[in-house]
Specification:
Four copies of one chain form a homotetramer. Chain A has seven helices and eight strands, in the order H-E-E-E-E-H-E-H-H-E-H-E-E-H-H. By secondary structure, the first copy, chain A, is an alpha+beta fold. The longest helix of chain A is centred in the N-terminal third of the chain and has 23 residues.
């Protein structure tokens, strides 16, 4: 690792450790069940949470650096048990710079029924560009979860996938964008749940959904922070 | 800007920044999706949240001052993407001194179904004087949202409107009153949701609703803080 | 006020101010909508929250001392708009030393349907001795709310009443016991709501409920803190 | 008590006091209704919460040391009113080093209906190895609760039991593992509740559930912290 890469890794260790605080702030995770990773730009490396460590105990130093096959390159701890899925996404989707995994309650409830979240809210149109899709059931331990994420999100506007009977994976151009997608996924999953619990929510026109998504990805936020919070689309 | 106006603007920058803390305290907002603004009394100016900035990072200095057409007059950041809606309300409703926008979950669930919240609670009678009405579906980017808010709330007792498939806008004689209406809107939306989830809530007599509303607007609170927390009625 | 009474009042001002922190800790209240009071033992006096003041701003000094008809005896602020109801309870129920009022969401949802909470939980048997009853609809401003509380709770084991379309009032031998009843009322209201939302909860035998209530009122807790947390029964 | 035992007891007093902070962090408990205990390894002793004491006031010094029949050996306060149930579990299940009791809302709602929580989530397969079972209704005060816990959990993969109309008891090889099981029990109970509220969750294959459970109990976490978070299985 040269000096520039070492400096980048150091900064990402801090960013990734700190971003886990957003998962607890929004109550997306219980105990140690959720994780954030970031790709080291221009390197076949990622920074990820150690496995089974309390969120309170996470620091830059306890983060783990792996290659994109999940082999530890730097760090004393074993990496997250979801490392293989993160690594697969980085290998298959070069535009992705951050990956997040949670079992947030409302989103995971939709995943347990195997139901995509229909787009009934402008906030969902903004961030997800339509429904939030369901991915296949897949066992942990190999590439199956990673393949399910990539096959579901490739060519899809949504940066979030509901993995069946499991939970949420989100992607972003960096770790912060992926964390934002995880926060917004639970937020719209909750509101959609509550809306449908008492009746039938009103549909939105597809043209309105697309118009909202286009505007949000290109206009929202401060110019200096780069505009679009999601993953640049490839089409 | 003369000295008096500058002093007023300074105070409102601090008030508006601080009031966003009530949105996070009551979990009315996720990530950066919600905003507060205040009219500068006697001026065609408003103070509003910058776009896409974390709530933790909001300070008096990061607030943005705009004229009532949304043009930035003072501030380094782009104003909230909802600035046009706030500005339209201030232009059309001179008695309004504060506007708040959230996607709070329970209230937005009613909005997704396009259902007004019936008045089943004395707390709703106090603050809203009856049902909380639904406004039209409107796209962001022009005056449509502002028009929908104003046409729904004009002549209505409620300081809150549920914009269809979108979220909540509230008004008040000042920013604090509008924030209070946003907090109470989610509170009664949640209780009404829970009540109807297990059966049919009991209706309240219209005369009782009116009696409660009159009393609350005129008697409640400390005399020194001005009595009525809502917008002075125009009839 | 002699020196002993002044000392008692001073201590109760601190206790009552501090106990409001339990209402916010358990999210039983929104904005300023909930209040705690304590009787000054042996005096026709009570200490109560000022009207419309933020929970963060409550201190011993801002509490208000009233006689048992709600007339202010000591304090700069107007007392809670629910003062008449608290005062009526103290006049009618000499064994009561504390009163609490909230609009906590789940309990108030039962109140909006006018349904008592059936006893499906050992925790409810412990604290409430059976169902939590519903009181009548009553307008604020006179003795109607107080009369509704007293007529419902007199001779009833429950220290909590669900006032129709309104919210919760609880009583206790002191303010802390009344606050505990308010916390437990929302807790069992939520669990009972969730239980019934997906089916029919299992009934408990009346003899088991009575046995649990007797044990809890007489055995639970540290001997030095006086045993029973509720109101001493009169039969 | 010899010096080594005294040192062990001292450490467990601190651990048990601190672990109660996880019950409040995850909102598993209201007021004082929930408790943690730990077996003193190799001794017929346990460390447990005092009865009816606020979670804020818990310190190492206020914990109570009892023998495995619930008789106080060291401590100024009366032990938890659930001490007999904890003691029975330690006597009957020598592999158990920690016991936790809560009335957490979603899990207790399943208990109120007397329904086991079906396994619809990989997180539940990981921690519980299948459904979370229901134990019998039992009155406090003797060995009935303890017997119900032991008869339900003996030979079962789940470290959690839903005691009918009552709440949750969890076991673990130490107090931390039992607390984790209590946290995860409420988490999966909530997600399962939400999933079933809007339809029928998708079943998981028994082979997949077993595969996930085996992997999680043997692979997850850091090797240095001992691997499996649950109770070592006896078959």
């Amino acid at each position: 690792m040269n000096t520039d890469t070492a400096r980048q890794v150091r900064a990402l260790r801090e960013t990734v450790a700190r971003l886990h605080g957003e998962l607890t702030r929004y109550a997306l995770v219980a105990w140690t069940a959720g994780n954030v990773s970031a790709r080291v730009p221009g390197q076949d490396l990622m920074v990820i949470k150690p496995s089974g460590v309390d969120y309170d105990a996470l620091t830059a130093d306890t983060m783990v650096v792996c290659d994109l096959h999940g082999t530890v390159v730097d760090g004393d701890a074993a990496p997250s048990s979801d490392t293989a899925a993160h690594a697969y996404v980085y290998r298959a989707m070069p535009e992705v710079g951050g990956v997040v995994h949670t079992h947030s309650s409302y989103a995971t409830a939709w995943a347990a029924r195997g139901e995509a979240i229909p787009c009934w809210l402008t906030a969902q149109a903004d961030e997800f560009g339509g429904e939030i899709p369901v991915g296949p059931f897949a066992l942990i331990g190999g590439d199956d979860i990673g393949k399910g994420i990539v096959s579901t999100l490739s060519g899809h506007r949504s940066p979030a996938v509901l993995m069946r009977n499991h939970g949420v994976f989100t992607i972003g151009r960096d770790a912060r964008a992926a964390v934002k997608a995880a926060v917004m996924c639970e937020d719209v999953a909750r509101t959609a749940h509550l809306a449908r619990a008492l009746g039938q929510p009103l549909p939105m026109a597809q043209a309105d959904i697309s118009s909202l998504h286009d505007r949000y990805q290109n206009v929202y936020g401060q110019r200096s922070t780069g505009g679009s919070p999601g993953v640049p689309r490839r089409s």
